[in-house]
Amino acid sequence: MRLLKDKKGQVRVIEALFASVLLLSSLTLIPMVQRSYSNDATDALSSTALNVLVSLDSDGHLANLVDNQNWTAIQSLVQSCIPLTVWFNLTVFDQNMARLNDAHICSGGLVSDKVQSAEYVCASTSGNYAVYIIRLQLAAVD
Predict the structure, then answer these.
(1) Do β-strands 105-106 and 116-123 pair in parallel, antiparallel, or remain unpaired?
(2) CA-to-CA distance for 56 and 74, rounded, in angstroms?
(3) 85: which DSSP letter?
């Protein structure tokens, strides 16, 4: 009889039920919002460009290739890291933003007007300590 008259317990149970529904609904809606932003193709190209540059510069490998001005090796490495349907153009600058590569490091003609780029700063591991700014531009086939 006493349990039927205790209204505080029933209110707490209803309150806990509403709180759990609110938490579960927010957990299901947040991933959907994040996925809608991450599906943007331009953001994907920018992050791909940055990921390619970071992976190529593991252990200072990219900076060593720039030190040796081995533009064909850089072009081959970038081509192996991105899909065939993605156009790329890579430009190497020194710390004063003067262009260092005299040869074009690209995969042919531009395939889209929607070009995204990423810039990466790397330093030479040799004794001359040079700083390079590498700009990688990507465009996907429409």
Answers:
(1) unpaired
(2) 9
(3) T
DSSP symbol at 120: E
Distance, CA of 68 to CA of 23 (rounded, Å): 57
Let me know: does 117 contact 87? Beta carbons within 8 Å.
Answer: no
Q: What is the spatial distance between Cα 98 and Cα 50, in angstroms, rounded to a whole number?
A: 21
pLDDT beyond 60 at 33: no
Question: Coil, helix or strand for 133?
Answer: strand
- The reported pTM is 0.67
End-to-end CA distance of the chain: 73
Quote the CA–CA distance of 116 and 93 in Å, as a whole number.
Answer: 18
Structure tokens at 48: 């791909």
User: Is residue 7 very low, low, confident or very high in pLDDT (cuts 50, 70, 90)?
Assistant: low
Q: Which stretch of DSSP H or E encloses residue 138?
A: strand 131-140
pLDDT tens digits for range 99-133: 999 888 988 777 777 888 899 998 887 777 889 99
CA angle 110, 100, 80 (to 5 degrees): 50
Question: What's 40-140's CATH class?
Answer: alpha beta
